Amino acid sequence: MGAGKSTVGRRLARRLGLPFVDSDSAIEDASGFSAAEVFERYGERDFRDGERRLVARLIDGTVGVIATGGGAFIDPRTRELLNSRAITVWLDAPVDVLSERTARRDTRPLLRTADPKATLERLAQERRDSYAEAHIRVKSSRGGHNDVVERIIAAVEQHLDS
């Protein structure tokens, strides 16, 4: 949530000449509602179930870059699906950076709390172990997104060589 998945993913795909899909945008296209509205109408469990089904369709034989929602990887079934059929990348950003980025828009239902930064800190702590199961971890902070893209490419090349 706010790590730069969509922006970095889009740039990574462009740099590699691959298709790009943002899972939240795909959910919005399929449902006619924003991802936040789907989340609020049907609840987190149903949202995550739909997200997992979407991810399964997206990675079915297609080479490309997929940016999943921040909570997708915490679902064990989605995480297993992604890790078994794709190279997964964790964009690890400090909570201060996440807080700055997510404060710009009120589109994240989980952050509609009295203290969004404290909520982000809690979510980051809760999700850390799940995110750590990604194949690759790349630091994302206030620096340029293109630098993050280059670090991802280098890390993927190293991952493939090992």
Task: Give the helices and strands, then pairings.
Blueprint: H1 5-16, E1 20-22, H2 23-31, H3 35-58, E2 65-67, H4 76-85, E3 89-92, H5 95-102, H6 116-131, E4 136-139, H7 145-161
Parallel strand pairs: 1-2, 3-4
Number of strands: 4
How much helix is in the residues? Answer: 55-70%
Structural class: mainly alpha
Q: Give the second-level CATH assignment, the architecture.
A: 3-Layer(aba) Sandwich
Question: Widest sheet: strand order?
Answer: 1-2
Q: What is the rounded distance between the termini? A: 30 Å
**Number of helices in the DSSP assignment:** 7
Q: Provide the gyration radius in Å.
A: 15 Å
Stated plainly, the CATH topology is called: Rossmann fold
Instruction: Indicate the proportion of strand residues.
Output: 5-15%
Given this structure, which CATH class is correct?
Answer: Alpha Beta
Q: Which residues sit in consecutive blocks of at least 5 with pLDDT less than 50? A: none
CATH homology group: P-loop containing nucleotide triphosphate hydrolases
What do the pLDDT scores average to?
Answer: 86
**Quaternary organisation:** single chain
Instruction: Kindly give the count of domains.
Output: 1
Please trace the helix and strand order, writing H or E for each element: HEHHEHEHHEH
Largest sheet: 2 strands, parallel
Q: Globular, elongated, flat, extended or rod-shaped: what is the shape? A: globular
